[in-house]
Amino acid sequence: QKEVEQDPGPLSVPEGAIVSLNCTYSNSAFQYFMWYRQYSRKGPELLMYTYSSGNKEDGRFTAQVDKSSKYISLFIRDSQPSDSATYLCAMSPPGTASKLTFGTGTRLQVTL
Amino acid sequence: GAVVSQHPSRVICKSGTSVKIECRSLDFQATTMFWYRQFPKQSLMLMATSNEGSKATYEQGVEKDKFLINHASLTLSTLTVTSAHPEDSSFYICSARGGAYEQYFGPGTRLTVT
User: Fold this and answer.
1) A97, CA 20 to 30 Å: which among A11, B58, B88, B101?
2) CB neighbours of residue B34 within 10 Å
3) Helix %, strand %, coil % for chain A, to 5?
């Protein structure tokens, strides 16, 4: 079993839809959670990062962390074709030497 | 803020030659940088962790004599692929730790070994 599970998709939604992307994890030591967006042949771009449980909102993006269920989500409101990309969740335990553990990524396609 | 650059963005080299890839944090200092490799339609594979002024820590299965990493300053880390072979062809991405835990990634370098 992988430490971080993420549905690879592809996920296809119409423009304007609300998108829900999710990851589950098994390591209870994870405290820091991140979402990255990666366009084809580009490096990942940090979208959101949160510490421990709770919600964080930034524009059209909302990140949720439920540590009791070991489940994190990224919601995208009013999705746009430019949101079409692969979305990677990543997480790490505390400590300055901690490495990120990534999900496999979910490919999102927003259609006109 | 939090911009990381990589150079070159694309390189083609002949088998047996060495290639150096630079990773720079442009607007912040990074004591820790990371080097990843990514195959098509796959997630990122961590190769090594680079700490300024000390030797890099390599992940299991990564040949440290083949992938030489130098982190000479707080804004620059380099990855040298020595005696490159076609199987080393891949997308190499660096990242820099910007704060306590978040990492900012460079745009990546596509290496093709002929």
Assistant:
1) B88
2) 25
3) 5, 55, 45
The single-letter code of the amino acid at B55 is K
Asked if B77 and B26 touch (Cβ cutoff 8 Å), the reply is no
Q: Does A45 touch chain B (CB under 8 A)?
A: yes
pLDDT in tens, B13-68: 999 999 999 999 999 888 899 999 998 888 899 999 998 888 899 999 999 999 99
Closest alpha carbon to B47 in B4, B94, B7:
B94
Backbone phi, psi, residue B103, to 5°: -115, 140
Q: Cβ A46–B104 below 8 Å, yes or no?
A: yes
The neighbour count for residue A102, using CB atoms within 10 Å, is: 23
- Cα(B5)–Cα(A39) distance, integer angstroms: 16
Q: Given CB atoms, is A17 within the 8 Å cutoff of chain B? A: no
Nearest to B3 by CA among B21, B20, B24, B22: B24
Helix (H, G, I), strand (E, B) or coil at B37: strand
- Could you give the CA distance from residue A35 to residue A77 in angstroms, rounded to a whole number? 15
